[in-house]
Amino acid sequence: MFGILDISTSGMMAQRTRLTAISANIANRNSSEANGEPFRARQVFFQPGSPGAGSPEGRALGVHVASVELDQSPFNLRYDPGDPRALKSGAYQGYVQESNVNMVVEQVNMMQAARAYEANAAAAEATRSMVNQALRLLG
Question: Within a domain: residue 23?
C-alpha cells in the first residue's frame, strides 16, 4: 500500500541530489580541479527502481541515482595569450581552457529539477491524504 509513497519520496531524493550537483556546478565554474584542469561539470543519472530491492510483486518502484559523472564535453576556450595558463602550442595556442559549465543549461536543469521535486512532493501529499481518508472510512 505504501509503494506509491515510496515512488514519490524516491523521486524527491533523486531530484535533491540533482539540485546539489547543479548548485556545485554553478559554484565551481570558475575554479580548477586538483590536477590543475578547469572544473568539469557533474551530471546526475537516474535509474528506475530502488538500488537494492523491488516491490513484493517483483516490480521495482521509484527511482534512484545510478551515478554522478563528469561531463566529458570539451572545455570552453577564451583567447588570452598573456595568461600563464594559456596553451603554449597547437591549434589553440594562446587560448585558456575554462570550465565546461554552461550557465544557461544549468539554470534550465535547475528549474526542471525544482519542478520535478515539487510534483513529487504534491504526489506524496495527495497519497498521504488518500491513505488518511481510507483509514478514516475504515475506522
Answer: yes
Q: What is the pLDDT of residue 2?
A: 57
CB < 8 Å & 24+ apart, contacts of 135-139: none
Burial class (CB in 10 A: 0-12, 13-18, 19+), 39: buried
Residue 139 lies in a domain: no
Whole-model pTM: value is 0.84
Question: Max Cα separation, the chain?
Answer: 78
Domain presence at residue 13: yes
Count of domains forming the chain: 1
Contact 64, 46 (CB under 8 A): yes
Q: Is residue 94 part of a domain?
A: yes
pLDDT at 53 over 70: no
Q: What is the pLDDT of residue 38?
A: 96
Taking the CA of residue 109 as centre, how many other CA atoms within 13 Å lie in the half-sphere pointing to its CB?
Answer: 23
3-class secondary structure, 37: coil
C-alpha cell of 59? Answer: 516490480
CA dihedral 124, 125, 129, 134 (to 10 degrees): 0
Q: What gap in Å lies between CA 124 and CA 139, rounded to an integer?
A: 22
C-alpha cell at 110: 535547475
List the domain range (segments joined by +) for residue 31: 3-134
